[in-house]
Amino acid sequence: MTPPPPSTVMTVAVVMVIYLGVLLFIGWRAAQRTHGGEDFHLAGRSLGAWAAGISSTASSESGWVTLGAVGMTYAHGISGLWFAPGCLLGYIVNLYFVAPRLRTLSEDEGSLTLTDVLTRRWGDPHNVVRITSVAIILLSMMGYVAAQMTAAGKAFSSTLGLEGSRGYIIGVLIGAAVITAVTSLGGFRGVAWTDLFQGLLVAAALIGLPLYAIVKLGGFGPLIQGLGAIDPNLLTATGGRTGPALLGFVVGELGIGLGYPGMPHVVTRYMAARNLREVRRLSVIAMLWGVAVFYGAGLVGLAGRVMLPHLADGEKTLMILSLKLFNPVLAGLMLAAVISAILSTVDSQLLVAASAVSYDVVEEIFGQASDDRRSLLLGRWTVVIVGMIGILLSIGHVRVVFWFVLFAWSALGASFGPLVLFAVAKKNLINRHGALAGMLTGFGVTLAWKLGRDIASNPQAFSRVPFFTLAVTAFILVIARVSERVDTGDYAAVLAAAALTLSSWWLVQQDGLHHLYELVPAFAFAAAAALAVSAAFRHELASEAG
Amino acid sequence: MTVYHLSPGANLLLWVFPIVVVVGVVVWGFLASRREARHT
Questions:
Q1: What's residue A259's pLDDT?
Q2: What domains does chain A contain, in order, with CATH numbers?
Q3: A230, A284, A300: which to substitute to probe chain B, counting the most B Cβ within 10 Å?
Q4: CB A440 within 8 A of CB A489
């Protein structure tokens, strides 16, 4: 592709500067309404349906919706769309089952974070569940945040015409500085309001661009004929796959949806809604946004395959198609939408990671910052520190962060998803020992299974899983013994998680099982571990309560 | 010249599923708001 002329780059850069200015303005307005801890961590439970709904969906869909999802249909045709039902089924569970129940539960308990919900639901006298939950959130989120900042840096540097590694660093700093400022100043409200603005921009781009492209092609008929002429398999739901490969592909795509209930940066949006009426309205808004964005992204990929059939990287279809079809101002808005999808996720993750440290650890475990003003200051400074760590990781090109993006979705989904569903379904379905077993099992099985699937690229890491599992288990047990803050049920939870992690390490090596997306077995094992350990220690906890 | 068509599965994936979801969501929202209006 020939680079766009300098005048186009300049116009796009001006649109970008205006877009960043809007984000900062929204963050500043939100800061004026943020006065204390509950405001900072949960917008004072005052969000309307639009902000809570679009923020929940914009936070869950990172740059993959404007880049990866588009690339899926560009490469695989209609069969690349299987992610859409997978994601929408996850939306349905979250919006119609989790959201109203979690909103009520979190207010009844006075919980401000997802960790708070889980610990208050089943009790946590020694902070074992809280510490484990925070550790999993931080381990998963930091790599995720750094990778998103890297993606934002690359997008900014290419759209602003900044070249070389210096241009990349400036790109990272611009994106990260703006989003850290908005999150730190505006807290949850700033994140939700900017997400609303950015989520609407993403939806507008993913509705407008494919419609215009299809009209340019002459309608839907020519699009189908164009795809068929390239490869008739692009017009089938199987994409030419058969047998186990087809089953593994479809189960994997549908399995993406299992991750949604366990995303702390998504489900906290429901907790922040003003009331149950707003939750009902936000579920309609979020579902319609999801359909528009997923199918819009899919159609961009399909139209791009016909209009630009020889792209080396199908994930750049949206950006290249925008510059080809639109005038510089509209193209700038499209590119702003690509960056919006990234930034609307990274701000939410930044806030969740910071809340895990400032609220869950410093305030709840150490009992510091008991008044509202200190809680607010603590939250703001933690966002700045977490943001700076993310910037350093992304500028340092830490290679492992990209692996963490895919890992984090599965790890969070498996560690927290079953627990969120159990928590909102019924109080006594599981107990605190089961919760601990579920979290550790979800994380451990995800790690073992994902390394097993990636064995070709890193066989050494996979071979070390048993040693690593036993070492971590021994470390946890020794710490627990020395601190004398755990009881028998917690020991059983740790051992159950270790046994299931080792079992999954063995299972993934069995014939054909490495095709299975890691979230599916990890979610199932975590749910089973939570239920089994809870059942085994039900009577002990009942007598404790009595 | 060969004329290409979407396979039945592709039609389900591309058209039927999203239309069912959109209609379902809108109808559910409408019924829920009517129920809410009756209770208030």
A1: 95
A2: 41-396 (1.20.1730.10), 399-546 (no CATH)
A3: A284
A4: no
